[in-house]
Design a protein that fits this description.
Strand content: 35-45%
Helix content: 10-25%
Number of domains: 2
Number of helices: 1
Largest sheet: 5 strands, antiparallel
Distance between the termini: 97 Å
Structural class: alpha+beta
Shape: rod-shaped
CATH architecture of the largest domain: Sandwich
CATH topology of the largest domain: Immunoglobulin-like
Number of strands: 9
CATH class of the largest domain: Mainly Beta
Length: 131
Amino acid sequence: MKAVSPLVATAILLVVTVAGGVIIYNYMMNTLSSPQNYASITVLSAKMLVDSNKTIINVKLTNIGTASATVNKLEIIPDNITQTISVTIDPGTTKSINVVINKPLDTAQKHYVIAIYGDQETEPVLIELIK
C-alpha cells in the first residue's frame, strides 16, 4: 500500500480547515446578529406629597430594554402598601404614575418604592418628600 502524497495531504488539510472556519464563522454571525428582546424597567424618580388626610406619590418609570413591559404593581416599603396597576411601557419611553393613598404617611420615616413587572422587580428607590 502506498502513502498519500504530501501535496494531496496538504490540500485535504487546507480544505478541512477552510470548511471548519466557514462553519464557525456562520454560527457566530447568526448568534451575534440575532436581536435579544428583553424588558428592563428603571425608576427615574419618586416623589411624595403628604396632605392632612392623604398621600400622593408620583413615580416616573422608564423602559431601557428592547421589548415592551407591563408594570403590574407598585410597592411602598416599609409600610407594606401595594398598589395594583396595569401600565405598559414601550422601549425607550418614560411614564409617570400617581399613587393616591387614603392616609398620611409618616414624613419622619424614609419610604421606598419598588415596581414589579412580569417576574422581575426594580431595586428599591428612595421616595423624595415634597414639602
